[in-house]
Design a protein that fits this description.
Helices cover about 55% and strands about 10% of the residues. With about 110 residues, the chain is mostly helical.
């Protein structure tokens, strides 16, 4: 995963409502839900929830599956696994080296 991908995903996750949407989706039966299911769980207008879902979709964190006249959404576990691995590597790369070379700001 490239730095641009990580940054794009982190921007999508940078809003507390989007984090809550992912939590709601993770607890849904069969791992899928529609926008209305999410709206019922949040004190927000359907249009607002729809906009947040679009951001998550555009970042590749959820996928849309047509279901009759509605769309159902589910979390892309593969993308979360990629992000977890990439983010762990990023944080490890930013940590002080094992040789004890810690830097201090003057």
């Amino acid at each position: 995963m490239h730095d641009d991908d990580i940054a794009n995903i982190m921007r999508a996750l940078g809003h507390p409502v989007r984090l809550e949407i992912l939590r709601i989706m993770a607890t849904q039966q069969q791992g899928q839900c529609c926008c209305g299911d999410v709206t019922e769980s949040l004190p927000l207008a359907q249009s607002t929830v729809s906009q947040h879902i679009k951001v998550l979709h555009d970042a590749g964190l959820i996928e849309r599956k047509p279901h009759g006249t509605r769309n159902r959404y589910c979390i892309r576990q593969d993308r979360l696994a990629e992000l977890s691995s990439a983010f762990g590597g990023l944080l490890k790369g930013l940590a002080p080296s094992a040789a004890g070379k810690e830097t201090e700001l003057a």
